[in-house]
């Protein structure tokens, strides 16, 4: 028996009121004035209600478990803590360290896709004179033109396709407020795209630090430039331009990280500056580091490049030491709220950083590093989308994704 009209109307009014409330507080946190936030919140809430009402009878409705409900009758401690720290978008803080911010509902039977942000799906580097850790807007409230370029091409289409077979989480090595703000601005979380939902967000507080011999081998800031300043690197089999690779330092044998330059293929060689060597040498000699690099390259016989670099040789790319901060997927698998849903058998993490991928050798997919200047030619998300659809259709995931491009 259906509810009487008066009861149904009261229920719909309560839902609309709650949605207006949630949108209003989100918009104010994003910098809108109270008047502007009120108008936008009302429009967004009405649009959502109309979408719900337009859904065909019998259509599947996403059911949010009571613990993750955005308007519980009796909020749990996890919910109270989450909303007080990060606002209404955070439905609860869960996990062994209460560091996983739940923003949506998990779906039993789905695989899990964990995505990095910076240089994986979004480029925060300088564009038109400004950096983009979050999206900037002008006095009229419009985001600047860099927003489209900063997002990796096909981002929302990729997430829409992935959502058919995977629950999605985001894990970035930055702070939670910055991540949540950016995801809302890009329409990935909150009142964004209706074709997919994010289940949870993890930040730097969820990462672990590895103790290793490489950490004791020295930092990028070496006190002396004794030893080689530059070393030759050979592109290994399977590596492509834009991908990070790990090699051994010519000075002390410690692992260092370099990126494969454009237009190179396996077997080609290129030069990189040993971590800390060039900066230390230029400081000790009292010369500008950039001038020192140019002189060093000319001494190696490099010819001036094209006009795109002003007629000067491009600076020698710098290697860096292997990082110690990693993203252990075991933290998610150990979380009581997700332990029955996700395991090492149905989880993949995508990251551009080879160090992070090494922490989950059987579950990591290393993508190329994305920069907005490559927006017109980058097709990495399209490749990943095809790969994810392929492995989701198989009886079990591959034991390794190291050569995932070979399976396309």
From TrEMBL:
Sequence ranges assigned to domain FCP1 homology in this UniProt record: 106-391
Listed PROSITE patterns: FCP1
Family matches, as SMART domains: CPDc
BP GO annotations: regulation of proteasome assembly
Protein's UniProt name: FCP1 homology domain-containing protein
SUPFAM superfamilies in the record: HAD-like
InterPro entries documented for this protein: FCP1_dom, HAD-like_sf, HAD_sf, UBLCP1
């Amino acid at each position: 028996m259906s509810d009487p009209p008066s009861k149904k109307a009261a229920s719909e009014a309560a839902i609309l009121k709650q949605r207006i409330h949630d949108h209003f507080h989100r918009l104010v946190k994003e910098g809108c004035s109270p008047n502007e936030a009120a108008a936008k919140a009302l429009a967004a809430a009405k649009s959502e209600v109309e979408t719900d009402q337009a859904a065909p009878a019998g259509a599947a409705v996403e059911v949010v478990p009571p613990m993750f409900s955005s308007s519980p009758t009796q909020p749990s401690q996890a919910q109270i803590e989450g909303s007080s720290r990060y606002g209404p978008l955070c439905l609860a803080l869960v996990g062994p360290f209460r560091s996983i911010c739940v923003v949506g509902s998990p779906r039993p039977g789905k695989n899990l896709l964990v995505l990095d942000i910076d240089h994986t799906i979004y480029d925060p580097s300088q564009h038109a004179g400004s950096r983009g850790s979050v999206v900037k807007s002008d006095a009229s409230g419009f985001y600047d033109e860099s927003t489209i370029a900063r997002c990796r091409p096909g981002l929302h289409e990729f997430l829409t396709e992935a959502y058919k077979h995977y629950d999605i989480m985001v894990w970035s090595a930055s702070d939670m407020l910055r991540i949540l703000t950016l995801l809302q601005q890009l329409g990935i979380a909150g009142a964004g795209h209706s074709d997919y939902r994010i289940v949870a967000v993890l930040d730097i507080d969820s990462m672990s630090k590895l103790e290793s011999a490489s950490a004791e081998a020295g930092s990028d800031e070496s006190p002396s430039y004794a030893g080689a300043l530059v070393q030759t690197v050979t592109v290994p089999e399977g590596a492509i331009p834009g991908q990070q690779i790990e090699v051994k330092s010519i000075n002390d044998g410690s692992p260092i990280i370099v990126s494969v330059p454009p237009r190179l293929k396996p077997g080609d060689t290129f030069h990189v500056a040993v971590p800390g060597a060039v900066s230390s040498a230029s400081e000790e000699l009292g010369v500008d580091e950039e001038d020192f690099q140019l002189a060093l390259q000319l001494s190696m016989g490099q010819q001036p490049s094209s006009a795109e670099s002003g007629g000067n040789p491009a600076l020698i790319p710098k290697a860096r030491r292997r990082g110690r901060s990693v993203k252990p997927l075991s933290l998610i698998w150990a979380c009581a709220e997700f332990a029955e849903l996700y395991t090492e058998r149905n989880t993949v993490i995508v990251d551009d950083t080879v160090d992070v991928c090494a922490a989950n050798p059987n579950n990591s997919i290393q993508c190329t590093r994305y920069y907005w200047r490559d927006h017109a030619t980058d097709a990495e998300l399209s490749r990943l989308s095809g790969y994810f659809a392929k492995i989701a259709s198989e009886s079990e995931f591959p034991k390794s994704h190291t050569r995932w491009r070979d399976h396309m």
